[in-house]
Each structure stands twice: as C-alpha cells, then as structure tokens.
Specification:
With 185 residues, this protein is α/β, with parallel strands linked by helices. It has one domain: Rossmann fold. The protein is 44% helix and 15% strand. Strand 5, helix 8 and strand 6 form a beta-alpha-beta unit. The radius of gyration is 16 Å and the shape is globular. The two termini are 25 Å apart.
Amino acid sequence: MKVLKSKKTLIDYVERQREMGKKIGFAPTMGALHQGHLSLYKAAKKENDEVISSIFVNPTQFNNPDDFQKYPKTLEKDLELLEKAGVDAVYVPNVEEMYPDGLNSKKYDFDGLENEMEGKYRPGHFDGVGTIVEELFRQVQPHNAYFGEKDYQQLAIIKKMVEKTKLPVKIHGVPTLREEDGLAM
C-alpha cells in the first residue's frame, strides 16, 4: 500500500492509474478506523480497479476547538487496517496541504439541508465537510466514492455538493454495520 503525503505525490499517483485505464474508488475518512469504515473499502474493491483512502482530521468541521484537539489520532493502527483491507493507496495530507491559504471553509448552499438535524446545532459544520470533500475529490479524481449510510445527513450533503459542483464522481451509500446489540459501529 502506498502512503501519499503531498498533493503532488497523490496527483502523480492518480494520473498513472488513470493512464493505465483503472477505475478509481475512494473513501475519505478522519481516521480512528473501525469495521464500519472497512466496509466502505470492501464495497469499493468490488466495483473499482484501484481503491484509495484518505485520513485527514478536518479542523473546519469542528464547532468546538476542544473536540478537534481530542479527536483520536491512530495513524499507525489505521494504516495497518487499511493495508489488511486491501487498500491500494492512502492519502495522509497535513493541514497546510489541504488549506494552503488558511483555515477557511467555502460557503455552500445545500438547499437548506445544512440547517436541519445535526446542522441545526452545528452551524458551519457542513461547510467544513463540503470544503474538504470537494478538495479531496478534485485531487483524487475518483470515479466512485463511498460513504456510510450511518451519517445519512452527511451522505445527502455530499450528494448535493457533487450535484451543485458538477464533479464527475458517483456517490455510493454503504449500509451501516451494527454491533450485536444493534448499535451502529
């Protein structure tokens, strides 16, 4: 598994895969991976020649800076899990790579969806999500992208962002994996 740490190495890698005619599947994460995340890669492997992950804890989607600081960072364990899952490459950029002009989110109009449910209590959260996912899509250039249905509002937001930006990526929702007691993983 290739670990790519810069935008340039990622873009070079993606260009080589596309030149070989490979279909690219992608599932972005913030790390702290579990079986629910790994189900995204299992789905991606069925429909794509090349499967890429990303691990980036996005500061602009945290309303509370303390939550950002406390978010678990388990990179070594995550890389082991991704390799065992058969992921071909993982993009692990730093903040400066993703926000070269400073920590500013784009302002999106998700047709009001950003103000419902979770968005009602976390103003600006989905602008942060949209900003980083759009940037990742532009860099990775996937044919297909995979998101868990567990975060249904986020899945709907991503679909709306792709529709509005006209990015050429198909979004797939992957069913939620549950613990034996029914709790989502």
